[in-house]
Amino acid sequence: MASSPFMTTDDIIASAVRRALIPISQSTFTTDDFIAFANEELALGLVPSILAMKEDYLLFTEQMPVTLNQQRYQLPDRAIGNKVREISYMDPNFNVYEMTRITVDDVPFYNGPNTQSRIYTYYIENNEFVLVPELANGPIGVFLITYYMRPNQLVQTANVGIVQSFNPTTGDVVLDKIPSGFTTSATFDFVQKRSPHKCLLIDQTALSINTTTNTMNFGGPASYLEPTDPRNSWPGAPSTGLPMNFAVGDRICLSTQSDIPQIPSDLHVVLAHRVAARCLEALGDVEGLQAANQKLAEFELKTQNLIDDRVEAAPLKVVNRHGILRSGLLSRRFRFRG
Questions:
Q1: pLDDT for 165
Q2: How far, in Å, CA of 290 to CA of 282, rounded?
Q3: What's the pLDDT score for residue 225?
Q4: H runs (alpha helix) in 26-158
Q5: Distance between CA atoms of 310 and 130, rounded to whole angstroms?
Q6: How far is CA 287 from CA 24, 173, 281, in A?
Q7: Residue 240: band (very low, low, confident or very high) from pLDDT cuts 50, 70, 90
Q8: Which of 50, 111, 266, 331 has most Cβ atoms within 10 angstroms of its Cβ?
Q9: Is the dihedral of CA 97, 102, 104, 109 positive or negative?
Q10: To the nearest 5 percent, what fractions of the chain are helix, strand and coil?
Q11: What's the confidence (pLDDT) of residue 168?
Q12: b/e map of 135-146 (b: 16 or more CB within 10 Å)?
């Protein structure tokens, strides 16, 4: 039988047990211990290595409706390191405009009667971005907040629902099971089965859950849109629905959970090896740990070549957005907005 192209949490635990030669009947490590090791190694070992490649893995765009008379907006709490890649503004005609970050020292310079209806500057204060000046009147639209999303915490496959079938018109999704904790008061993430197992939608609410037929309803079809489609966050838009590219085998999980590591499938075996090394370290097996670390160094060297330079025939073009030749065009674009 062909092996799966990815590993679930259960597969990673089984692989770590084999690699560290841990007896099946042992009582030193519980399943929760293995999962805790995996989550720690994912967050502190693999994710920093992936981000170091600068190839936009883990990138996610979230929308936030513009609210008149509101100056402060929360930064996404799922952002790695509580930092964002970009904040921009999208108007009702789907035009996207760059916003400029300033420091709190520059706030007096950007206040004035001619800026009350314009969305173009902000500063960061702790976990909020603050508009300068406060928007008293002007355009509606959404903020597009792009950030590197923290991978969901790993859980066993018993704690997630695997999609068996779905109806995009009605929003019905049939799962292999309804895990405990799946209620209409909870929020859910749609996790893609395909590598790199990204979140298709996050924090969705189920309208109904039928434990007899293993069916969840998320409404439809109005929200059957791309995640960056502005209609997802437009005033009056429904907060439920199925995502684009939804497929059989995808996962529905409680928010911030997944049974598949949300990194390229090629790195799943590296995560399993890291868990095995943590077990050897905890057992005090110095010789075994040394051999495991040598193998891990070999793995990481080879996997860097796998995930780096994602489009080999098209080197990344560096655009000087704020150069002299572009400044006039951008200024005119912003002047006549609103």
A1: 96
A2: 13
A3: 46
A4: 31-41, 47-52
A5: 35
A6: 21, 50, 10
A7: low
A8: 50
A9: negative
A10: 30, 20, 45
A11: 84
A12: beeebebbbbbb
Condensed to tens digits (0 to 9), the pLDDT of residues 95-128 reads 888 898 999 888 888 776 555 556 788 999 999 9
Q: What is the DSSP letter of 133?
A: S
Task: For residues 200 and 189, give the distance between their C-alpha atoms in angstroms, rounded to a whole number.
Answer: 8
Asked whether residue 317 carries a pLDDT value surpassing 90, the answer given is no
Query: Mean pLDDT lowest for which of 97-111, 122-136, 307-321?
Result: 307-321
Which pTM value belongs to this model? 0.83
Nearest to 80 by CA among 40, 118, 110, 51: 51
> H-helix or E-strand containing 123?
strand 121-125
Count each helix (H run) and each strand (E run) in the chain, helices first: 6, 17
All residues at 6 or more sequence positions from 161 whose CB lies less than 8 Å from its CB, including other chains: 173, 175, 176, 177, 178, 179, 182, 214, 216, 251, 252, 253
**SS3 call for 10:** helix
Give residue for tokens 């995930």. Answer: 307
Helix H or strand E segment including 204: strand 199-205
Q: Residue 98 contacts by C-beta under 8 Å, 6 or more apart in sequence? A: 88, 120, 321, 330
Neighbours of 197 (CB within 10 A): 22
- pLDDT of the residue at 337: 43
Burial of 324 (0-12, 13-18, 19+ CB in 10 A): exposed
Distance between terminal CA atoms of the chain?
60
Copy the structure tokens of residue 61.
Answer: 């765009």
If we measure between CA atoms, which residue out of 113, 146, 116 comes closest to residue 132? 116
Q: pLDDT tens digit string along 202-234?
A: 999 999 999 999 999 998 754 434 555 555 554
Residue ranges per structural domain of the chain: 9-54+264-307, 59-150+318-335, 153-258
Q: Which of 68, 65, 71 is nearest to 133 (CA)?
A: 71
What phi and psi values does residue 295 have, to the nearest 5 degrees? -65, -35
